[in-house]
Amino acid sequence: MRALLTKLEQASALDRVGDRLQRIVQATLRPQRVRDLLHGVWLGHPLHPAMVQVPVGAWISAAVVDLLPGQRRAATTLIGVGTFSALPAAVAGLNDWAALSRDQRRIGLVHAASNVVGLALYSGSLAARMNGRHGLGRALGFLGLSAASTGAYLGGHLAYKQGAQVTQSVSELHLISDGWHPLGDFAALPQRQLVTREVDDVSVILYRHGDDVTVMLERCPHQSGPLGQGEVQQIDGHDCVVCPWHGSTFRLNGGEVVHGPSGNDQQVLPSRVVNGVLEARLP
Ligand code: FES
């Protein structure tokens, strides 16, 4: 299985389809606020993994109920709930997929294809059950569960092996030692400009606004883009940094994500000024 997944990650033959689908998704899912909604910006976490709990839960429950006598109606209801709830979950997943790196998109494409097959089988299962053909409906349901399980396995690989939509920056916190770390003379910090410094070899950005200062990890939580090279913009009265790679935008007074593709906030470090020296520590 590992060898197969490695081959899939390197399967450049998938790129023609993947690149075309990416353009279609990016052209269709507009404007930005729709993309942000689907990325889970309003939630502070990616939305797709939360949404898939409904179809997965309903389909697994249907499989259990299908093994019990006299539960046809319950099984049909669960298949219907799973099938219809899978559609918005798939749209949120496509929106995340379009902002992934190429190797992630290859696995994501097969993940999506498995789930489309699963969805088609469950739609057939629902139609068969509603026409009274419960034996066929049950068989299609179990086939659908097999396809959806393959999709779920690939989704796990995307998240846990390839780090898709997982905060990339937060693991750097483990590299910072305990205690306060000096970051230089506070008075020398320019106003409303990004300044890059290091805490135990971990890059952070400093942003001073008046007497307030923010110390934030520099690696973008989306795919490790250098936020220190980003642009500062004012959005809804808040100074924000825009990642130079894919445009994820974070408030500079707290790290809250304002625009995706990141669905995660950026990590800010507690800071203080002692004898004119700015210091930061682990949260
Ligand atoms: S790395 Fe993708 S938005 Fe920052």
Automatic annotation (TrEMBL):
Keywords: 2Fe-2S, Iron, Iron-sulfur, Metal-binding
GO molecular function terms noted in the UniProt entry: 2 iron, 2 sulfur cluster binding; metal ion binding; monooxygenase activity; oxidoreductase activity, acting on paired donors, with incorporation or reduction of molecular oxygen
A Pfam match: Rieske
Cofactors that this protein relies on: [2Fe-2S] cluster
Domain Rieske: 180-280
Entry keyword Iron-sulfur: yes
InterPro entries per UniProt: DUF2231_TM, Rieske_2Fe-2S, Rieske_2Fe-2S_sf
Keyword Iron: yes
Family statement: Belongs to the bacterial ring-hydroxylating dioxygenase ferredoxin component family.
UniProt-recorded name of the protein: (2Fe-2S)-binding protein
Organism: Micromonospora globispora
